[in-house]
Amino acid sequence: MTAEPLPLAATSLFRAVMVTAGWRCQCTGQCGHSHTRTESRCPRTHGGRVLLMAAPADPSTSERAAAALPADALRAWCPGCHTAAHRTTTRPEPAAQDGLFDL
Length: 103
Prior knowledge:
Radius of gyration: 17 Å
Distance between the termini: 63 Å
Strand order of the largest sheet: 1-2
Helix content: 25-40%
Number of strands: 2
Oligomer: single chain
Shape: globular
Number of helices: 3
């Protein structure tokens, strides 16, 4: 058993993802960084100043869909890589036009 901090809910799912990942961020460049100094994988590990999260392997997955994913569809992400990967894979929805210029 690890002495690393665990989330309050879904600990078995979180632990399964982290054990598979070796308690290390699994980003291999989806964040926009090549991580070339660390075998093309983010070097951040869980604990201390960085707490990893178990999040969808596909960062564009909606929060609603992510809640139902099994462990094998999740990856260990550090907050920086997850935020950057999510930002690069999601596009804002176009605003609905109501009013003056509707055709």
